[in-house]
């Protein structure tokens, strides 16, 4: 279902089509980065030295700085383009909620969940990106301090499920919109999406717990 189904009907222009492509491309890039970033951070499960070693290599190649800035730009573009389909006005939000309750359609509820998680992700990821870029290079001890003090542990407990759900729903809905999800493969892709969601959550929560329990020098 289209994300702008709640908004007043208007003719779609060629610009709308291009913006949809930009939204999908930036979303795919951010999803790929989120998975790679989590794999990078999860190296701490093998010890602080593993994460610090990988970070040192990336810092030598300036990948952390350049990559962080590029991801911040892509994140801003994606959020700006996607925001055009979010009902910010109270009346639109109420209408969306009423439609969801009336239709009782899984895809409508998925859209509601994507909008709600979008606000959570936008707020917390913005702070996360700023905190990370202003405290490079990434090191296990630095991350452990943030998780163990300052309330970031609880913020990540909120962010990680919201991010995982947002990514999976976004990928599924993009596939449905562009014809990759069909009636024939819908059940299989939905099941695989749930497996991906569970795997991402398990790895991210284990990594978070490792930072929570990492001894501080």
Sum this structure up briefly.
The protein is an all-alpha fold. It is 77% helix and 0% strand. The model is unreliable at 1-9 (pLDDT under 50).
What is the strand and helix layout of this fold?
Layout: H1 14-41, H2 48-60, H3 63-83, H4 90-103, H5 106-133, H6 140-148, H7 152-177, H8 186-213
Helix pairs in contact: 1-3, 1-7, 1-8, 3-5, 5-7, 6-8, 7-8
Largest sheet: none
User: Rg from C-alpha positions?
Assistant: 19 Å
For the termini, the CA-CA separation is: 52 Å
Count the DSSP helices: 8
- Outline the low-pLDDT stretches: 1-9
CATH superfamily: Fumarate reductase/succinate dehydrogenase, transmembrane subunit
- Report the strand count: 0
User: From N to C, what is the helix and strand string?
Assistant: HHHHHHHH
The CATH architecture designation is Up-down Bundle
The proportion of strand residues reads under 5%
Q: How many domains, as an integer?
A: 1
Q: Give the CATH class.
A: Mainly Alpha
Mean pLDDT: 82
Shape: globular
- Share of helix, binned: over 70%
Question: What structural category characterises the helix and strand content?
Answer: mainly alpha
The CATH topology name reads 3 helical TM bundles of succinate and fumarate reductases
Throw out a few tags for this protein.
217 residues; mainly alpha; 3 helical TM bundles of succinate and fumarate reductases; 77% helix; globular
């Amino acid at each position: 279902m289209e994300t702008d189904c709640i908004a007043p009907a208007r003719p779609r222009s060629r610009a709308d089509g291009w913006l949809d492509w930009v939204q999908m491309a930036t979303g795919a890039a951010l999803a790929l980065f989120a998975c790679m970033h989590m794999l990078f951070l999860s190296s701490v499960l093998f010890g602080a030295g593993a994460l610090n070693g990988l970070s040192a290599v990336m810092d030598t190649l300036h990948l952390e700085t350049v990559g962080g800035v590029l991801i911040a730009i892509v994140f801003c573009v994606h959020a700006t383009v996607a925001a055009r389909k979010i009902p910010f006005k109270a009346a639109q939000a109420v209408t969306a909620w009423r439609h969801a309750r009336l239709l009782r359609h899984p895809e409508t509820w998925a859209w509601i969940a994507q909008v709600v998680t979008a606000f959570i992700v936008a707020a917390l990821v913005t702070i996360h990106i700023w905190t990370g870029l202003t405290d490079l290079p990434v090191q296990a001890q630095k991350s452990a301090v943030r998780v163990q003090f300052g309330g970031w542990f609880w913020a990540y407990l909120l962010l990680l499920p919201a991010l995982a759900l947002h990514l999976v729903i976004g990928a599924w809905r993009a596939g449905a919109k562009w014809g990759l999800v069909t009636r024939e493969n819908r059940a299989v892709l939905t099941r695989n999406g749930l497996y991906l969601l569970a795997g991402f959550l398990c790895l991210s929560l284990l990594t978070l717990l490792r930072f929570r329990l990492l001894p501080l020098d």
